[in-house]
Write a structure and sequence with these properties.
single chain, TIM Barrel, about 30% helix, binds N-carbamoyl-L-aspartate, binds zinc ion, five-stranded antiparallel sheet, six-stranded parallel sheet
Length: about 350
């Protein structure tokens, strides 16, 4: 049995408000605990998106009622809400500012760079900005961070050109950090047929699964990667198999077993696991210490991943049938057993907002 600190996932989509048939603060934080995760930071692309005081209240009230592990809630950078987001009372209750810089994202899409500037200028420098920016728009986001002399965290990097750019930016002293998701480390576009089972929508995720060369480059440049994050993006199996499949993979419950299997295979060390799933994430996102919190893992337990055993409401996983090693046995959160042997023991509402911790 090994003991790990409470794991932190800085990138999850919990679908509340607006799409609780896919997930909500109850099912999503249950999935987190089952995966050994004790803090989740929830993304703002809900329905409605979290981009003003009323919508932030909506999400925070739902979380307060239902979250079983600790949590934070991002606010979304919209075309004209930088005056609101940067209000101290509002930024103080947010996990960070999420900027969707280049993908189609309805109300939260920032189409042109003049819309980026107020956010980079006004958001408090000591709080995180997380950018969804792929390839060249990532280069632009890093340039904005340099111009404004402030940190930026790049979400879900997936390409060789991205990891090499971030290495170069870090070497120049630019304050950039990044995360990578297990699905971009363990899957490439060559795996799409196997994931799909005849339903091409199941292989859809943003950023898209990349080439084998990109995957190899992420592994080779592991020292550049600050954090692991799931981008847990649950959509039901019927939505994934429909004519208009939404992109996204669930990931909370497969997060640690996949990473620990890589440790067993000699591709990562336990120090990497603790740094990238706890210590670095806590530092970058300015998260509080969770007292009396740990995760007990049977590192030798071998088992097969099965969606039917998961707590996420979406009821599928791209890793169905994968044989992994390392099972979470017990999670102790702030002195209470929150998960043990497959059972969620933390009550609804036990989770605390990481910005109002004491
Ligand atoms: C995300 C989702 O479903 O909310 N999907 C995904 O593939 N990562 C949205 C997104 O981040 O683009
Ligand atoms: Zn995401």
């Amino acid at each position: 049995m090994i003991q790990l600190p409470g794991l932190i996932d800085p990138h999850v989509h919990l679908r509340e408000p607006g799409a609780t048939h896919k997930e909500d603060f109850d099912s999503g934080t249950s999935a987190a605990l089952a995966g050994g995760v004790t803090i989740v930071l929830a993304m703002p692309n809900t329905k409605p998106p979290i981009f003003d005081a009323d919508t932030l209240d909506l999400a925070l009230n739902a979380a307060k009622q239902k979250a079983r592990c600790d949590y934070g809630q991002y606010v979304g950078a919209g075309p004209d809400n930088s005056d609101w987001t940067s209000h101290k009372a509002e930024s103080d209750r947010a996990a960070g500012l999420k900027m969707y810089l280049d993908s189609t994202f309805g109300e939260l899409r920032l189409d042109d760079m003049t819309l980026w500037s107020p956010h980079f200028a006004n958001w408090p420098k000591d709080l995180p900005i997380v950018a969804h920016s792929e390839s060249r728009s990532m280069a632009a986001a890093i340039l904005f961070a340099a111009i404004h002399d402030r940190p930026v965290h790049i979400a879900h990097i997936s390409l060789k050109e991205e990891v090499l750019l971030i290495r170069a930016a870090k070497e120049r002293g630019i304050k950039v950090t990044c995360e990578v998701c297990p699905h971009h480390l363990f899957l490439s576009k060559d795996d799409i047929p196997a994931i799909s089972h005849g339903h091409p929508g199941r292989g859809e995720v943003r950023p898209r699964l990349a080439t084998k060369e990109d995957v190899d480059a992420l592994w080779k440049n592991m020292d550049v990667i600050d954090c692991f994050a799931t981008d847990h993006a649950p959509h039901t199996i019927s939505e994934k198999d429909s004519d208009n499949p939404p992109p996204g993979f669930p990931g909370l419950e497969t997060f640690l077993p996949l990473i620990l299997t890589a440790v067993q295979d000699g591709r990562l060390t336990m120090d990497d696991v603790i740094a990238k799933m706890h210590t670095n994430t806590k530092r970058i996102f300015k998260l509080p210490e969770q007292p009396e919190t740990w995760v007990e893992v049977d590192e030798n337990a071998q088992y097969e991943i099965k969606a039917s055993e998961q707590f996420t409401r979406c009821n599928w996983t791209p890793f169905e049938g994968w044989k992994v090693r390392g099972r979470v046995r017990k999670v102790v959160l702030r002195g209470k057993t929150a998960f043990e042997d497959g059972k969620i023991l933390a009550e609804l509402g036990y989770g605390k907002n990481i910005r109002f911790f004491n």
